[in-house]
Structures are given as C-alpha cells and as structure tokens.
Amino acid sequence: MILAANWKMNKTAAEAASFVQGYAGGLSEWVVPTVLLVPFTTIPAVAEACSHTGIPKQRLAYGAQNFYYEAAGAFTGEVSADQLLEFGCRHVICGHSERRHVFGESDDLIGKKVRRAVDKDLVPIFCIGETLPERESGQLESVLTRQIEEGLSGVSATNLSKVVMAYEPVWAIGTGVVATPEQAEEAHAFVRKLLVSSFGASASRVPILYGGSVNAENAYTLMIRPGIDGALVGGASLKVESLLALHAACVKAAKEKGEA
Ligand code: 13P
C-alpha cells in the first residue's frame, strides 16, 4: 500500500516545508509509505524538511510531478532526471491526465519519460485513465490498453518492477465524483491482466494506485478492495490533517488485507 500526494500547482517552498514538519510530526506509524509529489520550486525545501524528520526515505519519500526525458540541453522550461535526483527525488509522475489533456502530452512522449525514469532509477508513477465519453461509449478497455502499450513500450520486465501504476479516471479527477469501489476494482483487474499478459508473472507485484476524488471519508472503502494498492490524491492531500486521516485509512486497509 502506498499513499501518494500530488500537490499539483500548490504551495510555496515555505508552505511545503511547514507541511512536511506537521505531517511527519502527526504520523504515528509509517507502515504505509507516503510519497509527496511536489512542485519543482519546493523540492529543495521538501528535501531539507524530510531529512530532519527522522523518518526513513522509503517511508517518507518525495518526487516531482513531471520531467523531460533528455539528459540536458536546449529544452527551455524543462527539468531533467539528474536535476531531480540531485535533490533526492525518488519518484516522478508520468502521464498525469492534466499533462495529457491540458498540456497535450502524447502516449509516445509519456513512454519516453517512463523509459528514461526507470533507466535513471526514478520510480515513474505512470498514470492512465479514460474520459467520461470514452467510458460511456464502451472504450474503457481500449483506451487503457493503448495507454499501457505505448507508455510501457520498450520497458523490460525487470524495469517494470520499478514502475508504480496509477489508474485515474479523468471524470473523477478534481470533480468530487469518485469511482465506485466496484468500478475501480474492475479497472484495476483489467490493468493487472494486461500487465501480466505482456510482462509475465512478475507484473503481478507492480502496485496499482487509484486516483480521482479520494478523500479521508472514501479512502478505506477503495483501499480495502483487492487489487487496489494505494491512492494518488490531489485536493485532499493539501492539508496536513486531511493527509494524516488518509494515511490512517490506508494503514487500516493495509492491516486488514494482511499487507502491514
Ligand atoms: P483529486 O484527488 O483532486 O481528484 O486529484 C486526483 C489526481 O489528479 C491525483 O493525481
């Protein structure tokens, strides 16, 4: 079980540092790792604040929401894997629906980022998910299949073990309309089947997170479901108390599933 917080374009460096202090101070146990996906400008402050918490890096990790796959060069406005690694980032989001739909990122570009991330030992949190019209017109499986095939093309079975998947139905992101546990479980099972058929049995260990309007009230009912291995949370991750409550819900589900 993993609890991942996607802050999107929120928080200054000072706000981020004080969040880390408050969150770490409020955590009573670390059995479920937390990953903070933070704005680039806050990474040094988050790194510094995390280093003072005494919580091991595997239990309180941080990373970025995006990066560019080239090593260096004339790519105005972009940030490389090495620039993230320099500040201790362990994770990076690839293919978030806002990158796909607001910034026009293609499956091909996302695939290049995923390959670069695993090559650099950054854990890609690789997001996939359908829009409402796609779901309503019966294209859920074909959309997920295309996103996975293109996003993971050229990734070896060994490197797949470094990937974290996130199923985020676009219609549930930031809308307050959360997928039902049944809908989420069904989509996760489909993703799992696809991964295992393409990469073999070891793909059964790749975590698949659910994202889209997860909050402290609905997290447990989703996380307790088989095949849902954690949450990727936007809005409800921005307040310390709310993320702590989400963490407690994940710990409860993980314990009941025998994972912690
Ligand atoms: P919300 O939790 O705000 O719906 O955002 C989900 C998301 O996009 C996480 O990556």
Structure description:
The protein is of the alpha/beta class and 260 residues long. The protein has a single domain (2-256), classed as Aldolase class I (TIM Barrel), CATH 3.20.20.70. Helix content is 42%, strand content 14%. It has eleven helices and eight strands. β3, α3 (81-85) and β4 form a beta-alpha-beta unit. Residues 6, 96, 168, 173-174, 211-214, 232-236 line the site of 1,3-dihydroxyacetonephosphate.
Average of per-residue pLDDT values = 97
CATH arch. level architecture? Alpha-Beta Barrel
CATH topology: TIM Barrel
What count of helical segments does DSSP give?
Answer: 11
CATH class: Alpha Beta
Listed once per kind, the bound small molecules are: 1,3-dihydroxyacetonephosphate
- Count of beta strands: 8
Short description:
With 260 residues, the chain is an alpha/beta fold. The chain contains eleven helices and eight strands. The chain has helices at residues 13-26, 43-51, 81-85, 97-101, 107-119, 132-136, 140-151, 157-160, 181-199, 219-223, 240-256, and strands spanning 2-6, 34-38, 60-64, 91-94, 123-128, 164-167, 208-211, 230-233.
Question: What's the topology here?
Answer:
Layout: E1 2-6, H1 13-26, E2 34-38, H2 43-51, E3 60-64, H3 81-85, E4 91-94, H4 97-101, H5 107-119, E5 123-128, H6 132-136, H7 140-151, H8 157-160, E6 164-167, H9 181-199, E7 208-211, H10 219-223, E8 230-233, H11 240-256
Parallel strand pairs: 1-2, 1-8, 2-3, 3-4, 4-5, 5-6, 6-7, 7-8
Helix pairs in contact: 1-2, 1-11, 5-7, 7-9
